[in-house]
Design a protein that fits this description.
The chain has a single domain, classed as Mitochondrial biogenesis AIM24 (Double-stranded beta-helix, 4-Layer Sandwich). The protein is 6% helix and 42% strand. It contains three helices and 27 strands. Strands 7-22-27-24-17-20-19 form a seven-stranded antiparallel beta sheet, with no helix packed on it. It is globular, with a radius of gyration of 20 Å.
Length: 326
Amino acid sequence: MMTCPNCGAPVSPGAEFCGNCGQRLAGNAAGGGYGNQAQAGYGGGNQAGYAGNQSNYGGGSQAGYSGGGGGRGGSGGYNEPVPQEGDPQGVLRSGDVAVRIEGELVPVVDVELGGRENIYFEHHVLLWKQPQVNIGLKPLKGAVKRIFAGLQIFVTQAAGPGNISFSRDAPGQIVALQLQPGEEIHVREHQFLLATDGVAYDFFRVKGIANILFGGTGFFIDRFVSQGGASLLLMHGYGNVFTKTLAPGESIDVEPGAFLWKDASVQLNTNVTNLSTGLFGGTSFTLNRFTGPGRLGIQSMTYHEPINADAGQRSSGINLGGLLNT
């Protein structure tokens, strides 16, 4: 496993910059941004890691993620965010867990559990399961901190063998990331679907009063860190999902509701622009500014808070109170 010579963090083979500290990696300067990191894998169609042609989860070539900017060439040479064309195709495996994305408008994540490795998820996204798949609660670390923050202290866990499927009740696309050991991903609250047990789930408080009041991400952002071998993290993006690979120091301004996920190395700040109309008063315009290096996931449909899951479960006799808070 390769590590950064500056901070010691694990890096993917062929990566040009360290995703943790932004250090340029010697010998990879020609790699054109994030080397050969496989984002999903899906049945042999490994995504050619953000350099040159991008294999679209099954053999299609999607231009983008080349050079420092990462994206399609726009006017004036600017590299735009690259759209994810459809949901991932084929099968993605982690240990004895096999994942397939099915459906069109509202995609379904179909999971086959082999019995050795478990998965965890937000409980209101469960769609169906075989009776032999056991459902339980997985306690999260930092329970006291979570209680005072008003966050859930449990997530729901599924243990096989057997089949179980998940879906959010909204149109969108699935983002599937195959994380390398030590890799850290930040995700907007209530937008992760599931992860394998090798991924640690935590949160951090958004810094800066402007970010909290105007950033549109809430007080907290979910943090996922791969603790073992290759592990899986899946999210649901509302509408269409785009990915922008930012070079060190490169920035992009994004509508607050469009933020979906980012590498830990990408910094977030909120910019508020006051628009004056003279005698008729004025208004303000708020955008989140993301600065590289690293990847940024953007969704085209503005995020809305999910409905209270307990209210939807009471009719079935399940009431988990405020412990799950999802």
